[in-house]
Specification:
Layout: H1 11-23, E1 28-30, H2 40-49, E2 59-60, E3 66-67, E4 70-75, E5 77-79, E6 85-87, H3 91-105, E7 110-115, H4 124-136, E8 140-146, H5 150-159, E9 164-168, H6 175-187, E10 190-194, H7 226-246, H8 250-260, E11 264-267, H9 274-281, H10 290-304
Parallel strand pairs: 1-4, 4-7, 7-8, 8-9, 9-10, 10-11
Antiparallel strand pairs: 2-3, 5-6
């Protein structure tokens, strides 16, 4: 919805999509300081949640206040003058970004605030201290970290206990969760995953002959070219077969598999139109049989190394 890596984004459709997601029972919304020029993602979200929309299942916090949604955001990254993402986890910038996020969202605090990514130019302990200050100021109910290695997570946790780690994970990219799972289990830290649909390819809607817009940034990834593209399509052929047997779409099948994986607490999925979130929300209530889950996992292991790609 930030319009940075996805073409054809319309803010009014984004607002409708968020509201439809909440109506369907989705109550975890993820944004960040760096999502969009001039905070586009935050401003769209603010419009969508204005008036206190209530999900199908509601909770109250430790102060007895009603929470319509769980809103997670991130500090420690920004966009340069050309709209390119860059690390920016200096403590003073993290504090400023947190303040601006709340102003954009028109909220007093968010439920979860992450360090977006460690900054190689800033001692990680300093970033941890800035996170704690954000919480001490009452701007975040809980803290989290994103895009970290296990050793970085351990260093951050010792300085600033957090409740969630966000990392990329999907059928063909399981490594990060595999590496973090033991740490998270030992410290009661939730795992929040993104790229479940691998920037759209695992939604199964792009056939072999798909023609990409030259401006589509997905073309920067090897899996969208040549042999890796063909191998991905072979994997999708198998997923399409299983999805047909289960009478669901490929996207629903993929997301149901992601949600079912050990240690996964939240699976994030992007959408820019209501019809897209209506399709993928079905995965919350669709459960794979053990045999089907094992069949998909075996296929994923077979294709993962052949289709490996970099972030």
């Amino acid at each position: 919805m930030a319009g940075l890596t996805t073409l054809g984004v319309d803010d009014e459709q984004s607002v409708l999509t968020i509201r439809r997601a909440i109506e369907l029972g989705i109550n975890f919304i993820d944004t960040a300081y760096s999502y969009g020029i001039d905070g586009r993602s935050d401003r769209v979200l603010a419009k969508a949640i204005a008036g206190g929309l209530k999900p199908r299942t509601a909770t109250t916090d430790d102060h007895g206040q009603f929470h319509a949604t769980v809103i997670a955001s991130k500090v420690g990254a920004s966009l340069d003058a050309h709209g390119k993402w860059q690390n920016d986890a200096r403590p003073d910038r993290m504090i400023t970004q947190a303040r601006e996020i709340l102003e954009r969202l028109e909220l007093d605090r968010v439920d979860l605030m992450y360090l977006h990514a460690p900054d190689p130019l800033v001692p990680i302990e300093e970033s941890a201290d800035a996170l704690r200050e954000i919480q001490d100021r009452g701007w975040a109910r809980w803290l989290g970290v994103s895009n970290v290695s296990t050793s970085q997570a351990e260093t951050l946790f010792a300085r600033c206990p957090f409740v969630a780690i966000q990392t990329h994970f999907n059928m063909l990219q399981p490594q990060s969760v595999q590496q973090l799972r033991n740490f998270c289990r030992a410290n009661t830290v939730s795992i929040v995953t993104y790229w479940a649909l691998m920037k759209g390819i695992l939604a199964g809607a792009m056939p072999r002959e798909h023609r990409f817009d030259p401006a589509d940034r997905r073309l920067n990834y090897p899996i969208y070219h040549g042999e890796k593209w063909e191998l991905a399509q072979q994997f999708l052929d198998e997923l399409r077969r299983i999805a047909a047997e289960q009478k669901v779409s490929v996207a629903q099948l993929v997301l149901a598999w992601n949600i079912a994986q050990p240690g996964i607490d939240v699976t994030l999925v992007g959408a820019k139109r209501p019809v897209q979130i209506e399709e993928t929300a079905v995965a919350m209530n669709f459960h794979l049989s053990p045999a089907t889950e094992q069949e998909i996992s075996a296929l994923a292991r077979r294709f993962a190394s052949a289709t490996e790609w970099t972030r």
